[in-house]
Amino acid sequence: MFKFNELKQIHLEITNNCQAGCPMCSRNVHGGLENPLLKIQNWSLDDFKNIMTEEVLHQIESYYHCGNFGDPLLNNNLTDMCEYSKTVAPDTRIAIHTNGSLRNPSWWKQLAKSLPKDHLVIFALDGLADTHSLYRIGTDYNKILENATAFIGAGGRADWTFIKFKHNEHQVEEARKIATGIGFEQFTVKNSSRFIMDPTYPVLDKDGNVTHHLKPSTDNTLKFIDKKMIDNAEQVAQQATINCFVQENKEIYIDAYKTLMPCCWLSSLPYTYIMPGDYAGDVRRKILLQYYDLMRDLGGIDNMNALNRSVKDIVDSTEYQTVWHKYWNDTKLITCARTCGTIDIAKPKDQFREKEKINE
Question: Does residue 330 register a pLDDT over 60?
Answer without folding.
Answer: yes
